[in-house]
Amino acid sequence: MRRTTAMRTGLATLLLLGTWAGAGSLPASATDATPDTAATDTAQSVRTPEAPASPALLSAMQRDLGLTRSQAEARLADEKAAAAVETRARRAAGAAYGGSWFDAASGKLTVAVTAAAPDATVDAVRKSGANIRTVKHSARQLDAVKARIDKLPAPDGVSGWHVDPSTSAVVVSVIGAQRADNDVQKFVERARAAGPVTVEETAEEPRTFAAGTVGGDPYYTGNVRCSIGFSVHGGFVTAGHCGRAGAGVSGWDRSHIGNFQGSSFPDNDYAWVNVGSGWWTVPVVLGWGTVPDQLVRGSAEAPVGASICRSGSTTRWHCGTVLGKNETVNYSQGAVHQMTKTSVCAEPGDSGGSYISGDQAQGVTSGGSGNCSSGGQTWYQPINEILNRYGLTLHTA
Fold it and tell me: Where is the composition biased (Low complexity) (predicted)?
């Protein structure tokens, strides 16, 4: 099976064309409502600021992560605290920082620190509130190893590679059935020569979730349907494989929305589209009838191990955990760098859709393996990289 892109339908998050009568109904046409009406309906459908998350988002976490409601609420609180700890701990560790990850069992962030770190540095990291693990290599050293591997031509039998702070190594993923392939073995040898590397086997190759046009969903370019990621001031962000710069974009009713103003794929997988012709943006992730619409309040990055949920126009809401960061994914169209890996499933048409942790935007769907029936894994392009690349401002509540 070859890698594919996740295109197929429209608004995985938030470009609204007016009001929607209730959770799950498609947005009405621009002539059916005014922006003021849309804002009122949005405010009624999303969670209150006091709640940790919308009831339906908590329900999705319970379904996909096997949690009770109280456990889901407690986990969101722990993850929010861990994100704050990570900032302090990383600053305290300095050059000795070896990466970090969230442990759901303890509800705490673990920070890796190199063995050569002075006692004062270790004490400062501990005082930040993090658990500590001693490792051989710093995050900077591991990133340098990964950067060297990024320069190697990868055969189809290699699905990707990423830094794993818990093992203090770069993990190279190979397709199990092709591990004995000469080109795969040669790549692994060259990767190991670049620095500390471990090899893991995977059953399936990553693919982007592309598909032909399917009626009834919002965002189309040519004969491809994709999902909207997040509203920004002046437009929305999505996956780069959904369209090239200049390509026209239409909504669920085939009315013109705008054009791709910037797009990058492969190497990256992000793009942004301007909004006009009676359409406007709202800081909301759509629930598609599975969950109520969710307000977006920022883009604080969730740590490895944190829970995360995805909204896409094909499979709607699904949740899982962050498995890794800064992973290179080797699609058939070329490698894409600096991706975040998750245990959330996706299917064709979910490309470009939104990943959100609590009320914090995380990124846009790129691709993955498996599906939402048998399970799978996915990758997303982090939102802050996209905003910085194009000088965009996230539309927040």
Answer: 27-43
